[in-house]
Each structure stands twice: as structure tokens, then as C-alpha cells.
Design a protein that fits this description.
The complex is a heterodimer of chains A (about 110) and B (about 120). Chain A has strands at about 10, 20-25, 35, 45, 60-65, 70-75, 85-90, 95, 100-105. With about 110 residues, chain A is mainly β. In chain A, strands 1, 3, 4, 7, 8 and 9 form a six-stranded mixed beta sheet that branches. In chain A, strands 2-6-5 form a three-stranded antiparallel beta sheet, with no helix packed on it. In chain B, the strands form two sheets. In chain B, strands 2, 4, 5, 6, 9, 10 and 11 form a seven-stranded mixed beta sheet that branches. A four-stranded antiparallel beta sheet of chain B has the order 1-3-8-7, with no helix packed on it. Chain B is globular. Classes of the chains: A mainly beta (about 110), B mainly beta (about 120). The interface of A and B includes residues 43 and 86 of A.
Chain lengths: ~110, ~120
């Protein structure tokens, strides 16, 4: 079955850039998206169709996708960005989430 | 304002059944695909099932295929998940999510707060 692999954790200093990767076979050919989930809350859509941002999502969140890897980039990371981040894509009519990455803002 | 409100969760014995509901408001329900996504305690997100607005497309995760059924009533703006032969590893918060695609294979742009299903071992 298809798998998406994310690093379990990423740390970043406030104001710096955080990159969270998501790897999967031929991921670049699939529409990927990213979600943010804070403790005790529902997930929030951050990026869809590789690099499109829903209204209300700050410009500091951006996405890219090439080859087998999708990347979520958070520029000028803020303390409130500390959360779990999940990538998601479809393969053979099955939805697949990555295992999630815990972003710590030190 | 888009609202998705799940209900129907609870404690159920292994092998038992449960029906989850999701009441939608704030948008034209029939125009959207819908999905169920679950999250076991302390774990990540797991896609469960999706259904298109016209019910032409229905998909299930392998882990629930044959045990769970997804349905919708567009007249009542409601989404359902019928869960049978429940197992301890089905224990999770079940989220209802909206999918703006017509194929039920898109992204999830709105989520409910979830309803907890517990199946003790």
C-alpha cells in the first residue's frame, strides 16, 4: 500500500524558516496537501494542490512538490505555529496521510 | 459559516455496531464530496471513507472495507458512517470533513470537532 513518510519532529527558532518534508513514490504526480493540527483541535487545511493556500492562511505558509518529495515551508516561524503537520495525497482511490511531524518552536 | 457537527460516538463492545452522523450547514451540501477521517488517541490522522455529492464515487480504506458503510442524505444535509463488527483498533475520534472536489478525492477544507468511538479490548 502507498505510504507517505514525514520526519517525526522538526525544531526551529522563532523568526527562522522551517521545512517539513513528505516523501512518497511519485508524489510529484499527485495533488498533495498539508494540514495543521494543534492539541485538542481539529485539523486545518494549510496548502492544497501542491502550493495553493486557502483564504485566511498566512502567506508565510507555502508548499512545493517535486519528484518524490513535497515540502511545507514556514517562513518567519512564530510560536503559534507550534503544532503537528500532516501531508495527504491520493493513490489508487485511497486517501493517505503521512505520519505527522511535530514542529517545535524553540 | 460552514459548520460540521458529528454525533453518535460512544462506548461499544467488540463486534458491535454504531452509526455516526454529521450535520452540515452553511453551504450547499449536495455540491460537495464528504469524508470521514479518524485519529486514534495520541496517533496521527487516518482517512476512513469518502463519498461524492451525487454518491457516484465511494471509497473506503482497506482497514474498514466490508465493515463500514458511508452514506448521505442531501435533503437532510447529513453524512453517515455505519460501523459494524467494531474492533479495539477502531477506537478513535472520528472527524467529518468537507471535500470540494466532484470526485471525492480532493482536499479537506472544513472539519468538524469530531466524535469519540471507544471499543475496549
Amino acid at each position: 500500500s502507498y505510504e507517505l513518510t514525514q520526519p517525526p519532529s522538526v525544531s526551529v527558532s522563532p523568526g527562522q524558516t522551517a521545512n517539513i518534508t513528505c516523501s512518497g513514490d511519485e508524489l510529484g504526480t499527485k495533488y498533495g496537501c498539508w494540514y495543521q493540527q494543534k492539541p485538542g483541535q481539529s485539523p486545518v487545511l494549510l496548502i492544497y494542490q501542491h502550493n495553493r493556500r486557502p483564504s485566511g492562511i498566512p502567506e508565510r505558509f507555502s508548499g512545493s512538490n517535486s519528484g518524490n518529495t513535497a515540502t511545507l515551508t514556514i517562513s518567519g516561524t512564530q510560536a503559534l505555529d507550534e503544532a503537528d503537520y500532516y501531508c495527504h495525497a491520493w493513490d489508487s482511490s485511497r486517501g493517505v496521510f503521512g505520519g505527522g511531524t511535530k514542529l517545535t518552536v524553540l | 459559516e460552514v459548520q460540521l457537527v458529528e454525533s453518535g460516538g460512544g462506548l461499544v463492545k467488540p463486534g458491535g455496531s454504531l452509526r455516526l452522523s454529521c450535520a452540515a450547514s452553511g453551504f450547499t451540501f449536495s455540491f460537495y464530496s464528504m469524508a470521514w477521517v479518524r485519529q486514534a488517541p495520541g496517533k496521527g490522522l487516518e482517512w476512513v471513507s469518502s463519498i461524492s455529492g451525487s454518491r457516484s464515487f465511494i471509497y473506503f480504506a482497506d482497514s474498514v472495507k466490508g465493515r463500514f458503510t458511508i452514506s448521505r442524505d442531501n435533503a437532510k444535509n447529513s453524512l453517515y458512517l455505519d460501523m459494524n463488527n467494531l474492533r479495539p483498533d477502531d477506537t478513535a475520534v472520528y472527524f467529518c470533513a468537507r471535500d470540494p472536489s466532484s470526485t471525492a478525492m480532493g482536499h479537506f477544507d472544513s472539519w468538524g470537532l469530531g466524535t469519540l468511538v471507544t471499543v475496549p479490548s
